[in-house]
Amino acid sequence: MSTATVVGSGPNGLVAAAVLARAGIEVTVLEAADEIGGGTRSGEAIVPGLLVDHCSAVHPMAVGSTVLRELGLERHGLRWRLPEIDCAHPLDDGDAGVLHRSVQRTAAGLGADGRLWRALFGAPSRGYDQLAADVLGPLLRVPRHPLRLARFGAPTVLPAELLGRAFRTERGRALFLGTAAHAFRPLNRPLSSAIGAGILTAGHRHGWGVAEGGSRAISDALAAVLAEHGARIETGVRVRSADELPASDVTVWDVGPDQLPGLLGDRLPARVARAYRRFRYGPAAFKVDYAVQGGIPWTSAAARAAGTVHVAGSARETAHVEREVHAGRMPQRPFVLVGQQYLADPGRSVGDVHPIYAYAHVPYGWAGDVSGAITAQIERFAPGFRERIVGTLVTDPASFAGNPNFVGGNILTGAKDLRQLLFGPRTTLAPYDTGAPGHYLCSAATPPGPGAHGMCGAHAAARALAYLRR
Fold this sequence. Notes:
- By secondary structure, the chain is α/β, with parallel strands linked by helices.
- The chain folds into two domains: 3-45 and 60-79 and 211-279 and 413-469, FAD/NAD(P)-binding domain; 80-209 and 282-400, Polyamine Oxidase, Chain A, domain 2.
- 36% of the residues lie in helices and 17% in strands.
- Residues 13-258 form the Amine oxidase domain.
């Protein structure tokens, strides 16, 4: 029997391990922390029984992930829950851009921009399950559905600010740019529309779901798949060199690319090691979890029913603060993403005290305290919010960086600039290959990038299986 070692148990490492184990490979997963899951972990905090997600929280790309479906996680307890409204982007005048799962309902609420919204997202979302085969992998390859990909991809090449000018209403522009801002990059750069458009298209097909019982339910279900196929998981094992690994035929690394030169040493070709050392990280997240009595008193009725709320003001303000953060300057009013997962999964709350998840985009490695600015931004669109706060839990960039893949607090595992978005961690058409025989990279630094979808792990495992067959 062939053997495999997977280093790291984030969602991609666990998916890679599961794909290999299902193929009959004897798999061992090694995790440095005492708990599996990486960014897909949850736990009680602030108030006994109150459940918070530590990093990854809302999963529009994971609900319809082909590999998660193939692995049958529902058989192991994973349940997706959807809010009444996927996302809202409130404005200072009380209006809001409102994202429903239905393209038609979203378009109806955008007035003059409804026709454009249908044109951008109607056909791609209807065909998303076929489109996903092309967008959830390396962009530079022969597509399986070239016409469908071209129809979806042509607008996404544009900078988000430029595409946003096609919207005639502020609610339409703000909703689109707020979603594009999930990429943590300036919205005036080419391809800055791509990640936002992918999230919107996937969401219109499958919804902006949350995992019942917290994001840890994704990790728990993957661990159950591994157990079903005889794989082993060892926690508390920090790997400092490939020389420390058990003998195995292939090794899959769920780590940041910049770690590989130290881990693999002379096994890496010199040119690959140089490329990995040049890998760039982007802006960081500064997160505050709140325990809130009665929930957030949003002025916008839509925001009160939305699983995700973009707290950013106008489209122009959103674009401005993303440029500032990328330049290393901390804006007074940052872009804040608020998660109200309890609306879809009420079991996370304790009575009428609800967990509120919120993070701001901040410069890489930011060491200042942004918790007051996050609270002020929410208060701006929900007067009276401060008075409802029962307690808080702060996770700053240094705390996120306790996960070695989140260098400088960059929870995306790398800057999603043009080169890294197109190629991954180095300029190659085989981003999962390290150049060291039998060693593969599966972290969110590889295409299609961050999220709990597990597709980076699936692609790396496919490369490893092809190597074993050879």
